Structure formats: structure tokens, C-alpha cells
Amino acid sequence: MDRRTIELPAGVVDYRETGPTDGPVVVFVHGFLVDDQLWSDVPERLGERGFHCYAPAWPLGAHRRALREGTDLSPRGVARVILSFLEALGLRDVVLVANDTGGAVSQLLLDEDPSRVGRLVLTNCDAFDTFPPFPFDVLFRAARHPGLGRVLLQTMRSARLRNSKVGFGWLVHRRLTAEETLGWVQPYLEDAGVRRDVAVFARGWTGKELDGAEAWLGRFDKPVLLVWARKDPFFKVALGRRLEQTFPDARLVEVDDAMTFLALDQPALLADEIAEFTARR
Questions:
Q1: What is the mean pLDDT of residues 63-86?
Q2: Which of 186, 201, 265 is nearest to 227 (CA)?
Q3: Neighbours of 210 (CB within 10 A)
Q4: pLDDT tens, 20-50?
């Protein structure tokens, strides 16, 4: 695994890269207030199987480099940042893998320009009128005000609270470690530029970005894999089933012993599903 940076029109983005450069390309899109560590070792597992994987830390709250002031970081704006990443690296026929808020952003990317995406993998994520589910819409509203957001997240310096159901604990089936989640709150608490980026995202969010998504998702005729934790109380399996019916070429895999952050709970299973899905013609 190599950690790299790339200069985009929006600013500098950090990413980790693994796998042979001539392998099928996989790009990961995480959600709000997490970073590429959300994917556990899924990129490395795929890298060992011949895939060329990119796992960036997108400007969604746990990124360690603030982007340029004035950048459009609304949900659709973040989709354009991802597109600029694909363009800057000349990536085509990409397998785009997304979770949580990253799923919403990836769906918006398909509306902006799907030409570089060859396949799509969605794990539990926003869809249709669920963007985001309660109580995360309250968090989005609080994040519009950096001072308030910082006060709220100060409590997450405590690993006990951070990993409890007050924090990230609701989103995983297994027990999180303090080290896993510390990097998800530190950038926001310690960097005013990161807090500004998050506020720009939250102020640009309306909750209606995916209204009418059936139309453009229905036009995406490339293969789609939905790997869904069936017991997730937030992104319910009914969302995955509805997405399966919306895409022209989609398959849903329902998973036990996992929650929203499915890659943390079932990294081997997710890597296997992506590899098998990509091998299919």
C-alpha cells in the first residue's frame, strides 16, 4: 500500500493506492465524517487478487487537508471532485464502490457524467428520499455551523463515547477500537479548514438531491452490485431492493452479521463479492 496525494482543481486529495497498475481499477467512496479507513483492508485484499485500487480521503469531514476556499463541496460538488480525480489519473472503466453518504454522491456522479464508470458497487447507503436517514439529518444541520459542530464533536474525544451508540457504535456489528475511530474526529476538531469544508457540504445539502434519481439510475445500463447488511436500522434493506429494481442490470446480495459500515464488519466477504462481480461478463 502506498499513500499518495494529487493536486486537483479543488485542492489536494490524499489517497491510498494498492495493486498492480495493469489490473482492473477500483475506486472507493466513503461517507460523512469518516475516511478511507472505513474500507478496512478491502483494497489490499483486492490488490492481492490483481486489482488496482484507489481509496481516497474525500472532503467529507475526516480529510486531513482542507480544500481550496470557495470550492463547491455540496453533494453534487463532491461528485464533481471525484470525477476530477478520475480524469486527472486517466481512469476509465472504473469499478466505483461506495457506502453511506458516498453512495448518494456516487449516484449524483452518474447523473453528472457516467462515462468513466464501468461497474457500480453500493453497500448500505442513501437512496431516493432517504438522504440521510434520521438522526443523521440532524447532524447535517448542526454541521452547517462549525462552532456548534465542534462543540458536539468534542465529546467524541472520548473513545468510550466515540465507539458507543452515541457515536459510531450504531453503525457496526463488531466492536470498534479507539485507534480505528480517532482519525475520524481529529481532523474536524483540529483544523478550521476542514470544519469549513464540512459546513460548505452541509449548507449545500437539501435532502432532495436524489429526488427523481430513478430517471438517471434507470439509464445506467452497466452492471451494478448491491451488497447490503439486512439488519441495518438506518439504510434498510428495502432501499437496496428498490435500487435493484431501478437499475437495468443489478444484483442484490443480503448480508448478515453486518451494519452500515459493512466493509468493517465483513471485509473478506465484500472483497470476494467485488472480485466475483468484476470477473463476470
A1: 98
A2: 265
A3: 21
A4: 999 999 999 999 999 999 999 999 999 999 9
C-alpha 239/C-alpha 228 separation (Å) is 9
Number of H helices, E strands in the chain: 12, 8
Check: CB of residue 188 under 8 Å from CB of residue 152. Answer: no
Say whether pLDDT at 176 is over 90.
yes
Rounded Cα gap, residues 161 and 147, in angstroms: 20
Q: How far apart are CA 13 and CA 22, in angstroms?
A: 23
Share of the chain above pLDDT 90, in %: 96
Q: What is the DSSP string of 190-201?
A: H-HHHHHHHHHH
Residue 33 region, left (φ>0) first, then alpha (ψ -120 to 50), else beta? left
pLDDT band at 6 (very low <50, low <70, confident <90, very high): very high
Asked if residue 247 lies in contact with residue 275, where contact means CB atoms within 8 angstroms, the answer is no
Instruction: Check: pTM over 0.85? Answer yes or no.
Output: yes
- The H or E element that residue 227 is part of is strand 224-229
Tell me whether strands 2-8 and 11-18 are parallel, antiparallel or unpaired: antiparallel
Question: Within its chain, how far is the Cα of 139 from the centroid?
Answer: 17
Sheet hosting strand 52-56, strand order edge to edge? 2-8, 11-18, 52-56, 25-29, 94-100, 117-125, 224-229, 250-255
**How distant, in Å, are the alpha carbons of 61, 82, 202 from that of 269?**
27, 26, 33
Domains of the chain are: 2-131+208-279 (3.40.50.1820)
280 versus 241: the higher-pLDDT residue is: 241
Q: How confident is the model at residue 281 (pLDDT cuts 50, 70, 90)?
A: low
Helix (H, G, I), strand (E, B) or coil at 215: helix
